[in-house]
Amino acid sequence: MSLDLYATIGVGLETVVSRELAGLGITAARVEPGRVRFGGTADDMYRALLHLRCASRVVRELAFETIEHEADIYDVVRELDWSAHFDPSATFRVTFNAHSSLVHNSRFWTYRVKDAVCDAFVERRGRRPDVDVAHADVHVYCYLENRRLSVGLDAAGDPLHMRGYRVGQHVASLREHLAAAMVLQSGWEPSRPLHDPFCGSGTILIEAAMIATHTPPSAWRSRFACEHWIGFDAARLGELRAEALAKVVAPPELRVSGADADPAAVSLARENLASAGFGGAVRVDQCNARDMEPVLDGVVIANPPYGERLDASDKQELYAAFRQRLLACKGSRVVLLQGDPAFEKLLSLRPAKRNRMNNGSIECVLYQYDIRA
Q1: CATH code of the domain covering residue 193
Q2: Residue 55 pLDDT > 90, yes or no?
Q3: Is residue 226 within 8 Å of 45, Cβ to Cβ?
């Protein structure tokens, strides 16, 4: 049976996720802001859940309709036969996102969608499922964009960027799927060195090591929400998971390293690397980015501090010194994620590429520089 599916993504990751799907043998049907649509079988859905590094969710769409009035939302949801998708003994929660003049209170419609699901169950089965906002079995996912209403089931549950390897987080930790996207966008090959001079909790280093060793992003994941759906094939998901883990390799020499000026961040990065299984393969040192050793014919990837983490004089001095260290990285590509509008002027280097890539609610730009040999 063919399923209508889409992957939800952050701003700027549409092309990356489309390429990831193509690598799984799945053709993107349509790319939209914030999501990539594709059709496929249950196997395709399972593979997407197991292998997508840069997506947040994989949603099975049950309805996609144009509505005229706010009240139509309830009707569309109630008309669906929810009992064909999960049992009333399962708990559920609702996520409702709206970018439409039709809706003025998204929280109200989160509750109304919940009511519609429960009313549909009572009508067909004579009983309703319970809501569990914190630990739901089933995740109902809806969005309204202008007048287009989508209703579906989130197959992931907890967002896919929540890998499960982190022991702790830095105060400004980069989300895992963004770190993976930065590595993939850089064009890095594991035979070349990769260095993060602002490594924080080590997320970029871990994601790079996972890519180099073909470790699936789901390696530490214990469950997906689709496991509570009617018709879920546990045996098949187990087979696909085993296939993914069987492809993990240990490269003879992983040339990945990181550094941070903060000793607490260095300690945390080392703990996270050990938790992910890369403690002996990735080196992390305490070192200020102003004193970074040159990375030759490799890649420098970082999420330098910005916003309230640096005052104006600190920024100017840091980036002036950092610029000189980057210019010594002959033959290397530099990939930097920044949310400071003044960053490009402060660094005073001409980027080869600029791409918008938001870090949560922070509007950022991904800068790529090529340092001549």
Answers
A1: 3.40.50.150
A2: yes
A3: yes
pTM over 0.90: yes
Which residues, including other chains, have CB under 8 Å from residue 111's CB and lie 6 or more apart?
94
Q: Give pLDDT tens digits for 188-220.
A: 999 999 999 999 999 999 999 999 999 999 999
Residue 316 counted as domain residue = yes
Contact 296, 332 (CB under 8 A): yes
Biggest CA-to-CA distance, the chain: 72
Query: Reduced to 3 states, what is the DSSP secondary structure of residue 370?
Result: strand
Q: Which amino acid is at 285?
A: D
Here the tokens at position 218 are 């789901």
Q: Please give the C-alpha separations between residue 360 and each of 11, 56, 201, in angstroms, as whole numbers.
A: 9, 11, 17
| pLDDT tops 80 at residue 252 | no
Burial 58-93 (b: 16+ CB within 10 A, else e): bbbbbeeeebeebebbeebbbebebbebbbbebbbb
Q: Which residue has the tokens 């009333």?
A: 88
Asked whether residue 15 falls in the same domain as residue 107, the answer is yes
Indicate the length of the chain as a whole number: 373
From the CB of residue 144, how many other CB atoms can be counted at a distance below 10 Å? 22
The CA distance from 156 to 87, in Å, is 18
Q: Classify residue 169: in a domain, yes or no.
A: no
Q: Residue 82 and residue 123: Cα distance in Å, rounded?
A: 11
Q: How many CA atoms are closer than 13 Å to the CA of 275, on its beta-carbon side?
A: 20
Q: Which pLDDT band, with edges at 50, 70 and 90, does 360 fall under? A: confident
Which residues face 61 on adjacent strands? 152
Q: In this structure, is the dihedral angle defined by the CA atoms of residues 270, 273, 279 and 284, taken in order, positive or negative?
A: negative
Per-residue pLDDT averaged across 272-295, rounded?
Answer: 96
Stated as kind and residue range, the H or E segment containing 153 is: strand 148-154
Tell me if 243 is assigned to some domain: no
Query: pLDDT-based confidence at 251, cuts 50/70/90?
Result: confident
Count of domains observed in the chain: 2
**Helix (H), strand (E) at residue 138:** strand 138-145
CA-based radius of gyration for the chain:
22
Question: Does residue 237 sit within a domain?
Answer: no
| 129-142 confidence digits (pLDDT tens) | 999 999 999 999 99
